[in-house]
């Protein structure tokens, strides 16, 4: 009986040490902003330092992204191309002068890829499958973009489990109601809300 108690105590102590080490590893591997807060988290103090000009630009870009998402949900390739071009231009003319060094670095990391994806969508009118491939990658960047600056409105991160041979894909939506941009009018309500961003 005494041996059983000792073994239980050793196992419990080992489990606690492993759990703590894993928590510390994941925390140390996550990118942090200048305040030490995880930049991938839903609450980022960098948002509070955003000026009104930046906020207006972010709102406009998120609006173009949502127009793109809604066009794809309706299988409207031409409107998706128009919104893609507008979003790409938004990334090109985004004024970074009021950003902190940390915000600038994060923005550059996001913008380099997102601008290219939006550009491809803009040049691919009439090619819905191709636009949706780029929208998948663009959405990852836009989720990070909104977490960095905030959108000035409530948004949802939605998930489609069936897209890309059941690998799944996420997107941002302004409504809780699912309108799937990856499967369009074929399966408009396929998906679920994964996260709410404020």
UniProtKB/TrEMBL annotation:
InterPro entries listed in its UniProt record = DUF3347
Kindly provide the name given to this protein in its UniProt entry: DUF3347 domain-containing protein
Q: Where is this region: Disordered?
A: 24-52
Keywords linked to the UniProt accession? Signal
> Could you tell me which Pfam families the record lists for this protein?
DUF3347
Q: Where is the DUF3347 domain?
A: 63-153
Instruction: Output the superkingdom of the source species.
Output: Bacteria
Q: Which PROSITE patterns is this protein grouped with?
A: PROKAR_LIPOPROTEIN (PS51257)
> Which range is the signal sequence, renumbered to this chain?
1-19
